[in-house]
Amino acid sequence: MTGIAEWLASIGLREYAQRFGENATDLSIVRDLTEQDLKDLGVLLGHRRKMLRAIAELKGDVLRTPPSASCVFGLGSGFLNSIFGGTSVMA
User: Fold this and answer.
1) Among 5, 9, 45, 70, fewest CB within 10 Å belongs to which?
2) What is the mean pLDDT of residues 17-36?
3) What is the domain partition of the chain in residue ranges?
4) What's the CATH code, domain 4-66?
5) What is the band of 8 on the pLDDT scale with cuts at 50, 70, 90?
6) How far apart, in whole angstroms, are the C-alpha atoms of residue 85 and residue 77?
């Protein structure tokens, strides 16, 4: 998915693409949108509910993505390779 218009189309709400664009609302902030934000954008009640469910799924994707060892421990791959004898531990 490359942009807000594609995301909106994927959930059947393409008609809001222009409104989101006019309000500088892109995929980088969509996970932060609240019901009030969507209301302020003029999104109808039923469509707000649909968008909020889709946003929750986006948030869930982030939570379900397991972090790599370097993210968890702040370690670079060189350090990890020295510990594990040069074996790649990164997925």
Assistant:
1) 45
2) 96
3) 4-66
4) 1.10.150.50
5) very high
6) 12
In single-letter form, the type of residue at position 23 comes to N
What is the per-residue pLDDT across 33-63, written as a single tens digit (0 to 9) for each? Answer: 999 999 999 999 999 999 999 999 988 875 5
pTM above 0.85, yes or no: no
Query: Pick from 58, 59, 23: which is nearest to 38 by CA?
Result: 23
Angle in degrees, CA 86, 67, 31, rounded to 5: 150
Report which of 21, 20, 64 is spatially closest to residue 38, judged by C-alpha positions: 20
Radius of gyration, CA atoms only, the chain = 19
In this structure, the number of other CB atoms found within 10 A of the CB of residue 79 comes to: 13
